[in-house]
Input
Amino acid sequence: MLRLLRGTVEIEVTGASAALCLNRWTAADLPFWALQTDSELVFRCRVYESDLERIRREAAHAWCEIRVLRRFGLPGVLRQLRRRPILAVGLPLAVALAFFLQSFVWFLRVEGNERVTEQEILQNLWEEGVRFGAWGPALNSEKLKNRMLNRIPALCWLAVTREGGVVTVSVAERESVEPRTETEGVAHIVAARAGIIREISVINGFTDRKPGDAVMEGDILISGLAQWTTHLQATRAMGEVYADTLRVSELLCPAAALKKTYTGRSETCTTIIFQRKRRKISGNSSIFGSSCDKMIDTSMWILPGGYVLPVTVETVTLLEYTLEPVQLSREDAEALLAPESLRLTRAQMVAGRVESGSTAINMTQDSYRCRGVWNCVELISKTLPVELFGEDEANGETDQRGAN
Output
């Protein structure tokens, strides 16, 4: 470090008395190092730049010549800066500016979130003033934590740390609470649909049903009450019953459909989005008086290290089209309605599957009618609470009655 501050030079010494030159330097207490011998008459070494004039005088007394090869250290840099005043002023200004810019927020990172999206957290941080270009020392981590927890109830903890221009927001989410299953009170398991029992599983309650029995909607499958000789036993029936059911669906579709025909006309609009401000660069954002498809392509500016700048370039491509009526054939109508009938049937079941089925397409005056018949195996059990004690609504008193 001392050599860099004082400045050093690499010199080449040429002469017949190289040993005499080195002895005179040593006697004059002139330090030198990195000695390299190129030949019997030439050698190289390094000396301090401040000793260069004395080095030359002593070498001249030994009939040697000195040639400077390279300069190192701070004095040489300062001499170059004196010849370039703009660089001399700009370099310290750039260093000062680099330290000053670290006081602002340039990048935001969110970590620890799983269910709460990063976009939702950044949106709320924006509304609290934590954004690109914000003054970093003004951020109060404790106040920001309390406000963010009020804004996003799904979070149970939040911490904000700033390292230079990078703000890291660490969050912890509340544990998801499973819906509580009702286990109290008296209830029956009844049939939600008519069907033929295929499988019955009893967890709690009483039943005499078995696979192969036909049941109607509302029939008790697993009872929560049992009448004994001396008393009535009440409990909450629990279990699952799967049954073979029949589902019928009907769908309508117009016989004529509108088909897109692209005209070949298109428009492209390029927009730059800085934070929340949008500025159109070129193109048109719409095609007047016509319908069009819109395709949006966005690209973000990402620096090395994964730092995302709040600058987005959005390119919107518009393709003009016209709608022309086209007669729908029977095959096209069946290809459209049959899968939709199956999808709706599956969506209507709580649990189960569709084993088989068929669809029939009939054409009316101006539409196609699809009738689907599906054989399903589905869960038909549902819980029905039982009122053991009645309530007298006339006087508000409860009339409790039980078995004698």
